[in-house]
Specification:
alpha/beta; Rossmann fold; GMP Synthetase, Chain A, domain 3; 6-stranded mixed sheet; 3-stranded mixed sheet; 9 strands; globular; binds guanosine-5'-triphosphate
């Protein structure tokens, strides 16, 4: 095959928190590379998911939900969105059909994109009638021009084949940027930290998930098992107690469920050692935010 028959491109998935960006990317890839929870602002990094075929490579960029940043961590998250939209050839602007109020600044941002294809993706259509979904799409199309409009349910798969076909039809000639067997570019430590963070989002409430981050201190691949030591960093002393729980009950539950998910991922026994550390107001401190990989 000659190089000019091969196609490649970057596709950024952008939208408000909880629109279903990570679910959509995982489903389009057929593998879970991005954590998903029912809570908004779960995704903090740009997560890359690579779809390869013999003559094509599509690199999906999952991004944090677009918000008005209030603290350093959120500012770093929004820089990630900016980078993704600059890097991308195609933008999938995803809207939850039940949360379709789009702030004007997002339309402004979408309209400012030059030389890129922008697709409107109406997600969660399993929750509404076709008519309702079309009404929502029309309202959004009135405010901004889109190259294509797609209706999907990322969770049950409706419309995803058509979405993928439309994406593929718009990918231009270009070389493969990554080895064809690669699914993502982050190291295993990154995914392990994300899996712990996902369980934290699922098991704790209110400000705890948003105030925490995970720092993998040690990752030893041993013959019989992988030994992982991780710090859970919190914002305030009072949060440490909540994380640990009475008699250590809460953190034990977190450790158990995180260990099970990690074991499924690495396909090996895992020993997970979790410690809680207080780093006062880390989310407000640019150096710490950078240090923790944002
Ligand atoms: N009913 C329904 N729920 C969905 C669909 N897609 C995603 N969800 C749910 O919506 C919630 C948010 O999904 P995510 O994929 O984490 O959303 P996100 O846009 O990546 O969220 P952030 O990372 O917080 O910005 C989860 O509870 C999903 O299960 C869908 O098609 N239908």
């Amino acid at each position: 095959m000659t190089q000019d028959q091969h196609k490649s491109g970057y596709v950024a998935i952008i939208g408000k928190p909880n629109a279903g960006k990570s679910t959509l990317m995982n489903r389009l890839l057929g593998s879970k590379v991005s954590i998903t929870t029912h809570k908004p602002q779960t995704t903090r990094h740009q997560i890359l998911g690579i779809h390869s075929e013999e003559d094509m490579q599509i690199i999906f960029l999952d991004t944090p939900g677009v918000i008005n940043p209030r603290y350093e961590l959120q500012k770093a998250m929004m820089k990630t969105v900016d980078r993704a939209r600059t890097d991308a050839d195609i933008i999938l602007f995803i809207v939850d059909v039940k949360d379709a109020d789009v702030p004007g600044r997002i339309f402004k941002m979408l309209s400012s994109l030059k030389g890129k294809k922008v697709f409107l993706v109406i997600n969660k259509i399993d929750k509404v009638t076709d008519q309702e979904a079309e009404g929502v799409a029309r309202k959004i199309q009135d405010q901004c021009d889109f190259d294509e409009t797609l209706f999907v349910s990322a969770i049950n798969g409706t419309g995803l084949q058509q979405a993928m076909d439309t994406i593929k039809a718009n990918i231009k000639p270009g070389p493969a940027f990554y080895p064809k067997d690669m699914l993502s570019e982050q190291p295993i430590r990154f995914f392990v930290a994300e899996m712990i963070r996902e369980q934290l989002f699922l098991l704790y409430h209110q400000e705890i998930p948003y105030s925490s981050t995970i720092n993998i201190v040690q990752y030893d691949e041993r013959d019989d098992l992988d030994y992982i030591s991780a710090d859970i960093i919190v914002n305030r002393e009072s949060q440490k107690g909540i994380l640990i729980g009475k008699g250590g009950k809460a953190i034990k539950k977190l450790g158990k469920s995180a260990r099970e998910v990690i074991q499924g991922f690495v396909d090996k026994k895992v020993y997970l050692d979790l410690h809680v550390k207080v780093r006062d107001k880390w989310r407000q401190d640019p150096n710490r935010v950078r240090h923790y990989g944002y």
